[in-house]
Amino acid sequence: MSVNISKLARASVQAIVPYASARRSMSGGAIWLNANENALASEYQLSGQFNRYPSCQPAALIEGYARYAGVRPEQVLVSRGADEGIELLIRSFCEPGKDRIAICPPTYGMYAISAESNQVASVIVPLQPDASLDVEALTQVAAKLVFICSPNNPTGDLISRQQIVSVLEHFASSALVVVDEAYIEFAMQASVVDLLAQYPNLVILRTLSKAFALAGLRCGFTLAAPEVINALKQMIAPYPIAEPVAQIAVQALLEQGIARMQQSVAIINQLRTEFSAFASTLPGVSRVWPSQANFVLLQVPDAAACVSALQQQGILIRNQSAQLGLSEVVRVSIGSPDEMQALQQAMQDYFSNTG
Ligand code: PMP
C-alpha cells in the first residue's frame, strides 16, 4: 500500500505556495544578480568555543545595533533575518482566522506568505500607478498590521514620510504600522526611525543582508516601542542567534564595519545610476523604475525569455512578472563592477538581437 505522507501535513500548509527564494528557484550561473545581495563582501574572524548555548538577545549585538540605528537597546530585537521579524510580528499580534494584515503590492512576498502560514488573511491595497501608497484606501481597511516597504522591493522607490505619518496617525490605536527598511542604507536620509519617539505603533524592520553584505549570516532587527519588543520576545525561539552569528554581526557594527558598509553603498549607488542610464538606452526596455535600493526593475517585451537568455550566459536575474500590478518585468540586483560589465554586455547582445 502506498501512503502519501505529505497529505498528513495541515491542509492550510499543503495549500501554501512557498516564497520562491533565489536559492530555491534558480541554480547554476556564475553571476548572481537575482537576490538583492551585496557582492562586495568582507572577511570576519571567529573566536572562542561553542559548547554553551548563546544568549537569546546577545547584549553586545543589541547595543551595537541600537547605537548604529540611533535608538535605545530596549527598542531592538535581533532575529534570524528580517524574515523572522515579519513572522514574529504576525504570530504575536494576529489571531489566526480573525485578524488581518494589510499589504501594498507590488511588494515583498513574505508578508502574505508568513500571514497565510499562520492562518492570517491579507487585505490587498495596491500601490498607486506612481508607486505611492493609496492612503485613502488604506484608511478604509481593518487590519492589525500594515506592511509598508520603503525602499520597496521590487520597484525600488521610497514611500514618502508624509504618507507614512498619515497611516501611523490613522491607525494610532488600532494597528501596528510596519515599515520594512531592509534597503534603507541605500537611501539612509529617508529612514523614519526618528518617528519611533512619537508613534508607539511604528515598527521598523532592518537587516544585515543587504548593505552590510551578510545575507548568509541570517541576522535582522526589529525596532519598536519596548512593549512591542517584549511581545515579540515572548514568541521568539530560546536560542535564535547562533554564537558565530552574534560574533560576526558585532564586528560588522563596529565603526570600521559601518565605514566599509558605507563605502560599498556609495559604489553600488554609483553602479545603479550607471546601469539605470544604460538600461534606458536599450531597444526593448520600455520602462526603468527609478530605484533607491541595490536593484533596478525593468519592463521588457518577454521577461521569461530575457531571464533565460541571461541564464545561458551564467547571469541570474529575477522575473517579477507574477507580482500583482506588474507584467513582463525583470529585477536586476546591482553586483560588483565586473559583474555589471558582464551583465551590460549580455543585455546589449540580447536586446540588439530581439529589439
Ligand atoms: N524585507 C525585504 C523588503 C526584503 O527584500 C528582504 C530580503 N529579500 C527581507 C525583508 C528579508 O531579509 P532577511 O535576509 O533579513 O531575512
TrEMBL record:
Domain of life per record: Bacteria
Alphabetical list of Gene3D superfamilies matching this protein: Aspartate Aminotransferase, domain 1, Type I PLP-dependent aspartate aminotransferase-like (Major domain)
InterPro entries xrefs: Aminotrans_II_pyridoxalP_BS (IPR001917), Aminotransferase_I/II_large (IPR004839), HisP_aminotrans (IPR005861), PyrdxlP-dep_Trfase (IPR015424), PyrdxlP-dep_Trfase_major (IPR015421), PyrdxlP-dep_Trfase_small (IPR015422)
UniProt modified residues of type N6-(pyridoxal phosphate)lysine: 210
EC number(s) given by UniProt: 2.6.1.9
SUPFAM superfamilies: PLP-dependent transferases
Cofactors required: pyridoxal 5'-phosphate
GO MF annotations in UniProt: histidinol-phosphate transaminase activity
Aminotransferase class I/classII large domain location: 44-343
Alphabetical keyword list: Amino-acid biosynthesis, Aminotransferase, Histidine biosynthesis, Pyridoxal phosphate, Transferase
Chemical reaction(s) catalysed: L-histidinol phosphate + 2-oxoglutarate = 3-(imidazol-4-yl)-2-oxopropyl phosphate + L-glutamate
Biological pathway: Amino-acid biosynthesis; L-histidine biosynthesis; L-histidine from 5-phospho-alpha-D-ribose 1-diphosphate: step 7/9
Subunit text: Homodimer.
Stored HAMAP family: HisC_aminotrans_2 (MF_01023)
Family membership: Belongs to the class-II pyridoxal-phosphate-dependent aminotransferase family. Histidinol-phosphate aminotransferase subfamily.
NCBIfam families the record matches: hisC (TIGR01141)
Full protein name: Histidinol-phosphate aminotransferase
